[in-house]
């Protein structure tokens, strides 16, 4: 096999710049000894550096494209890492390294980068570190501080469990084919807390409901959630006084993670029997 033709539907933009590839691989150098899962190795540009830094025994590759998998089997040096041919979004991450925690890395398929992070969150206790490249817009979103325009659902839900650092920006010219957007490399480190301090399912609903109407004040955007919660509990209640509090004239991007946790606890109390 001479060449893997990049497939748009799989978000394939292969790196052509070895300096950038090595810089991305180096973002995990602080975690030597921790096994590594690479998502979407493609033709192995990043993989070769991960192999050099961590060794084949500590590396597993997850790639959905059978053509790329065939290329890797033909071209990667021996001994080769284990290759899982399949969809990362369906992988049970607690089975990859026999339940051991591992670092996640990749030049991620941009079309599913948010879903990759949601999948990682499901298995957060198995993934203490994660780094890699994604479209700059999403990188800015997940790293966004409260009060910034780019803050969104993923900023809050990831920062609840991870410290996020925006590392560096990468121009489109270092890929084949070049993507339409700029790229960026980020690093996420698990923050050590194992309790978010509130009902996590309710928190997710609060965050999603609030950001789905991000221009609205919380008192407006959250109102339908109260109706839903009351309907689920089979009761009717008047929440006018709760919704009138001054804190709820704010918009979702203004709240810190801690303020979302407090708000979730307030809502849980307000809607309790
Ligand atoms: N790491 C390579 C390729 C990056 S392009 C490089 O830097 O050159 C993104 C890669 O993710 C492609 O190889 C694509 O086939 C793969 N991919 C896309 N969706 C995937 C999924 N759901 N699970 C695993 N890999 C996926």
Map the helices and strands:
Elements: E1 14-15, H1 18-26, E2 36-39, H2 45-54, E3 59-63, H3 66-75, E4 82-85, E5 103-107, H4 113-122, E6 129-135, H5 136-143, H6 153-159, E7 162-170, E8 175-176, E9 183-190, H7 200-212, H8 218-221, H9 223-233, H10 240-243, H11 257-270
Parallel strand pairs: 2-3, 2-5, 3-4, 5-6
Antiparallel strand pairs: 1-8, 6-9, 7-9
Helix pairs in contact: 1-2, 7-11
**Which radius of gyration do the C-alpha atoms yield?**
21 Å
What are the secondary-structure elements, in order, as H or E?
EHEHEHEEHEHHEEEHHHHH
Strand order of the largest sheet: 4-3-2-5-6-9-7
The overall pLDDT average reads 96
- How much of the residues is beta strand, in percent? 15-25%
Strand count: 9
Bound molecules: S-adenosyl-L-homocysteine
Structural class: alpha/beta
Total of DSSP H or I helical runs spanning 4+ residues: 11
Q: Any low-confidence stretches, pLDDT <50, length ≥5? A: none
Q: Tell me, briefly, the overall form.
A: elongated
Helical amount among residues, as a percent range?
Answer: 25-40%
CA(first)-CA(last) distance:
66 Å
Largest sheet: 7 strands, mixed
């Amino acid at each position: 096999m001479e060449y893997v033709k990049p497939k748009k539907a799989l978000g394939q933009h292969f790196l052509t710049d070895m300096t950038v590839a090595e810089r991305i691989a180096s973002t995990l150098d602080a975690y030597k000894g921790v096994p590594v899962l690479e998502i979407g190795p493609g033709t192995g540009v990043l993989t070769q550096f991960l192999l050099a830094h961590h060794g084949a025994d500590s590396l597993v590759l997850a790639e959905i494209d059978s053509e790329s998998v065939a290329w890797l089997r033909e071209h990667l040096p021996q001994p080769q890492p284990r290759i899982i041919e399949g969809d990362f979004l369906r992988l049970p991450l607690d089975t990859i390294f026999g339940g051991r925690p591992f670092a996640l890395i990749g030049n991620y398929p941009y079309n599913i980068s948010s879903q990759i992070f949601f999948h990682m969150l499901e298995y957060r206790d198995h993934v203490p570190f994660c780094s890699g490249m994604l479209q700059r817009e999403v990188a800015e979103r997940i790293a966004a501080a409260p009060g910034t325009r780019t803050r969104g659902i993923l900023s809050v839900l990831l920062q609840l469990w991870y410290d996020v650092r925006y590392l560096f920006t990468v121009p489109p010219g270092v890929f084949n084919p070049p993507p339409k957007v700029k790229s960026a490399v980020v690093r996420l480190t698990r923050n050590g807390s194992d309790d978010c301090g509130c009902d996590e399912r309710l928190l997710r609903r609060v965050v999603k409901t609030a950001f789905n109407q991000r221009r609205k004040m919380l008192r407006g955007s959250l109102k339908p959630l109260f109706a839903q919660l009351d309907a689920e509990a089979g009761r009717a209640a008047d929440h006018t006084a709760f919704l009138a509090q001054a804190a709820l004239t704010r918009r979702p991007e203004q709240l810190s993670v801690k303020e979302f946790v407090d708000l979730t606890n307030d809502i849980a109390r307000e809607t309790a029997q």
